[in-house]
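User: Need the bound-state model for magnesium ion:
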Amino acid sequence: MIVMKFGGTSVESRDAITRVTSIVKKYEERRPIVVVSAMGKTTNKLLAAAHEAAAGRRDQALTIVDELRGSHLTHGLALAGPAAADLDRFIRTHFEWLDELVKGLSVVGELSDRSKDAIASVGERLSSLVVSFAFRAAGMPTQHVDARRVILTDDRFTQAQVLFDETYAALQERVRPVAEHSVVVMGGFIGSTKDGITTTLGRGGSDYSAAIVGAGVNAEEIQIWTDVDGMLTADPRIMPGGHRVKSISFAEAAEMAFFGAKVLHPATVLPAVEKNIPVLILNSKRPEVDGTRITLDAAPCANPVKSISCKRDITIVNIRSTRMLMAHGFLRRIFEIFDRYETSVDMLSTSEVSVSLTLDNTENLNSIREEVRQFAEVTVEEKQAIVCLVGENIRHTPGIAGRAFQVLADKNIRMISQGASLLNLGFVIADKDLSSAVSALHKEFFSTLDPAVFA
Ligand code: ASP
Ligand code: MG
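Assistant: Bound-state model below.
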């Protein structure tokens, strides 16, 4: 049994869903459970309609709902074959309910998180129905499961926390047996409280749903189908021509995501990885490519570095204590200020009297600076970038830092950090030096490739 998750772009249109159908067909023997996001940008549009309604702009809200009704009918009915009349009825029923809800919100003039979830959930409720009709029309025995009956959560609407024991029990009871003989299709992102009130797991939550479903049914594998070939040795926006990394550990993937590889946030697949279920990143536009396999432990690799990840548009804040004596409590005071302004710090280096740290969100920097100035000098450097070498073997291989510094000898390195896990080595350099630095590092660490790990 496997879980196959398709994101919004993979199910955005009739053509996209046709592609998904043929991919799933190839895996039919492996008993797939298919988890889908809402079609295209549906979730954004639903929430926009909710906000318009609550702001009293009833007509604008209803116009958005109408557009969504139109696009779901157009793409959906074209896929449903002889069952089109049934799907038509389902879609219209959902939209009639949505019309009523939107009208109600415009009368009440306010939007609770609970109502937001009720509205946002319609995207996945509909996309999963459309996809299940498409599968059936293509000759696959298919069963639609309402995800809200099996993903059980608390009532923190818009950020609901999964009740794992109840959810896993429901998945064992209601999904696993069905998946033995039919392709199960369900929506990601949505769940419900034990009282049956609709919740959502937070924006982008479908990957998380897929991991939960996989963990709950003890799947052999979880496939996350996106629009990239997988994780690469270098960020393609900065250096095209990197190599695909065929396998990577969960810890390595986490470091890469943190520093910019936007493929998948590894924390979302933790429930699966903890149960030792491999997670694959695959490209629905190029299904023949093997993608990237994320597992708890890294496969042996002859290259010490697996990937160079980067983060652009970073600001360095240098803080120097003006009171040399009684310096204890210095870091605590600094971090309390960052905490109060909800500003997270990416990289940090300290000496006896000074601290440098990097931020990517500078919204509150002026206020932070004012407060820190009361006990320290502050300088700020903008237009910086973080470059990070990631690989489990970095800790076992002497001389990696030396090789990296040699390569960057003509560049001004502003900060250096080696993560506690010792599987990353990061530098801060000027953003204008980023692309030449990445190319040079790539040449140094990837001129020979372990064919077992790199494509
Ligand atoms: N449709 C939801 C969102 O846009 C969940 C997802 O796509 O993962 O946030
Ligand atoms: Mg999405």
